[in-house]
Amino acid sequence: QVQLVESGGGLVQAGGSLRLSCAASGRRFSSFIMGWFRQAPGKEREFVAQIGWNGISTYYADSVKGRFTISRDNAKNVVYLQMNSLKPEDTAVYYCGAVLTGRNGRFDRAAEYNVWGQGTQVTVSS
How far from the centroid of its chain's Cα atoms is residue 13's Cα? Predict the structure, then answer.
């Protein structure tokens, strides 16, 4: 099994940038597809981005495409989310999740993820 710990959240002005990190424990990190989700107050957890085992295949929500970049370092057991041109509507708790699966493809539903971190707050002021 793997355990996930997010960091890097904070308060930033609109147009600014943040980089979130998700550190994983466990020796099977490279076997997991990793994703970032976010959840604003009163809303459901929504998909942000996903990266495959080898870091080559990536998927993004339309709302963040061109502004956010997901990456991973399997040697360090870390997945990143670089967030640029932040908007107030990006304000949410950001969670990283892991999917242990033998399938390729897009995993954009929270129910598909086996493991979650505790989340990190991102607040974008206008």
Answer: 20
> What 3 state SS string does 2-20 have?
CEEEEECCEEEECCCCEEE
Pick from 124, 17, 125: which is nearest to 69 by CA?
A: 17
The answer to whether 114 touches 100, Cβ cutoff 8 Å, is: yes
- Cα separation, 32 vs 98, in Å, equals 6
76 DSSP assignment:
T
When pLDDT is averaged across residues 61-88 and rounded to a whole number, the result is: 97
Strands 120-125 and 10-13: parallel
Count Cβ neighbours within 10 Å for each residue of 93-112 and write b for 16 or more, e otherwise: bbbbbbbeeeeeeebbebeb
Give me the pLDDT at residue 17, please. Answer: 98
pLDDT at 30: 86
